[in-house]
Design brief:
Radius of gyration: 22 Å
Helix content: 25-40%
CATH class of the largest domain: Alpha Beta
Number of strands: 11
Strand content: 5-15%
Shape: globular
Structural class: alpha/beta
Oligomer: single chain
CATH superfamily of the largest domain: Type I PLP-dependent aspartate aminotransferase-like (Major domain)
Strand order of the largest sheet: 1-7-6-5-4-2-3
């Protein structure tokens, strides 16, 4: 049982001993009237000052929405920054390994290769669920991080909670659960497991449900101790002041977000009903996300047909386990009308 795991044993020694850079805004706390500490331009234009390096106000707002403490949050430039930091914190280049469960989000592998970290792949089973015993058998002392995407991209499947808990109880490394699409499912988050399992890290984002893909703000949720290492390694001012202010304003519109999510789910259920009726569609997989994975008679032909009429989807035919499949994001009613009309014709 790993609920009392000491995460220090998994962290690279140089990161444990790292003295992080201390910016001017890190060193000063309290109320100031005249700021002459950071070599900024003194003439106010709204962005002449450095942003809060710890995003304290924004974290406070997000923590209330997420039902956690602000010190359990790390904010990054999309989830990709958190993925990169996780690999750099725990994996020794040329020595350690990560494990991924394809088909899945490609940045886990890309970030590992950039860091010269080996990637072990354990494909999901025919139901797009993890092969737990195979994961535990093939993991070794160099397997530092396991990435699990739930709901998974590109399959849309929510990973079974029983499997996740079994992995947490028996895997000797860091378990990262990427919950980018969790707002489109009921009760899918593993946030309640954070306090029990110090080796668990959750990734969430404002890109999907909140409609803020363009501002690039992602979150890592973990124990306060784990978050201190993220803060140790991150760039001093990794979230700019425009993003912080814009997101703070948008968080006031939670009811609007919930309405949009509800409409997306309604349209998702419509596509799940209507796509299987089309001759070109062989199978539509269950989904807990804001997209549909559809197996086609000829995915390349269907993709070309959609693109020729201005509709862009993702062709996932080359991924493990998703041959001849298109991934179609759930759009507005009129956008979905267009997709169905083109594929019908």
């Amino acid at each position: 049982m790993k609920s009392r795991m000491d995460i220090h044993s998994l962290i690279r020694p140089n990161i444990l001993n790292l003295k992080p850079y201390s910016s001017a805004r890190h060193e000063f706390t309290g109320h100031g009237e005249v700021f002459l500490d950071a070599n900024e331009n003194p003439f106010d234009n709204g962005v002449n000052r450095y942003p809060d390096p710890m995003q304290s106000e924004l974290k406070e707002s997000l923590s209330k929405i997420k039902g956690i403490s602000a010190n359990q949050l790390f904010l990054g430039n999309g989830s990709d920054e958190s993925i990169d930091l996780i690999i750099r914190i725990f994996c020794e280049p040329g020595v350690d390994e990560i494990m991924v469960l394809p088909p899945t989000y490609g940045m886990y592998e890309v970030s590992a290769h950039i860091a010269n970290v080996k990637v072990n792949k354990i494909p999901l089973n025919e139901f797009f669920q993890p092969e737990v015993q195979q994961i535990l058998t093939l993991a070794n002392k160099r397997t530092k991080v396991l990435f699990i995407c739930s709901p998974n991209n590109p399959t849309g499947a929510l990973i079974n909670k029983t499997d996740i808990i079994q992995i947490l109880e028996n895997f000797d490394g860091i378990v990262v659960i990427d919950e980018a699409y969790v707002d489109f499912t009921q009760g899918g988050s593993c946030v309640h497991l954070i306090t029990k399992y110090p080796q668990l890290i959750l990734l969430q984002t404002l890109s999907k449900a909140w409609g803020l893909a363009g501002v690039r703000l992602g979150m890592a949720i973990a124990s306060p101790e784990m978050i201190t290492f993220f803060n140790k390694v991150k760039a001093p001012y990794n979230i700019n002041i425009l993003t912080q202010n814009f997101v703070l304003e948008r968080l006031r519109y939670k009811s609007e977000m919930e309405k949009q999510v509800s409409e997306i789910i309604d349209q998702r259920e419509r596509l799940l009903r209507e796509l299987p009726q089309l001759d070109q569609v062989l199978h539509v997989y269950p989904t807990d996300s804001n997209f549909i994975l559809a197996k086609m008679k000829d995915a390349d032909q269907a993709y070309d047909k959609l693109v020729s009429q201005g509709v862009v989807v993702r062709n996932r035919s080359k991924d493990i386990g998703t041959g001849n499949c298109l991934r179609i994001t759930v759009g507005t009613k009129s956008e979905n009308d267009t997709v169905l009309k083109i594929l019908t014709n």
